[in-house]
Design brief:
Helices cover about 55% and strands about 5% of the residues. The chain is mainly alpha-helical. The chain has a single domain, classed as Orthogonal Bundle (Arc Repressor Mutant, subunit A). The relative contact order is 0.15.
Amino acid sequence: MKTLTKVQKYILFALGFWFEQAKKKIKDRSLDLSISKVSFIDIMIKAKLAKKKERALYKNLESLEKMKLISYDNKNLSLTKKGKEAFKKIHTEIKPYINISNLLFKKDPLKFANKIQTVFK
């Protein structure tokens, strides 16, 4: 498989994570989700997940499609089997960082140390 750029990994992860989280919200497990390119790009821009312009996001989605990581059928995006595997790999690589971030957001970081030294600046 061709090596993904950081931007391609980021977009693939964002799409895969969106599907993962959205599926958790659906009660009927027999249903599947889809999202259009326009809607996904709107989410990326409105949520400030992308610093790139709309056209650049389209180009990156097209490159992921050429690499057969995503498919675009009936104006809807979905991850291919290869795309799901790449998403899982990216998720596995960054999960330790996400866990640290979540832990330190939920709990006071000062409570993890016995003695904290403070100094004047």
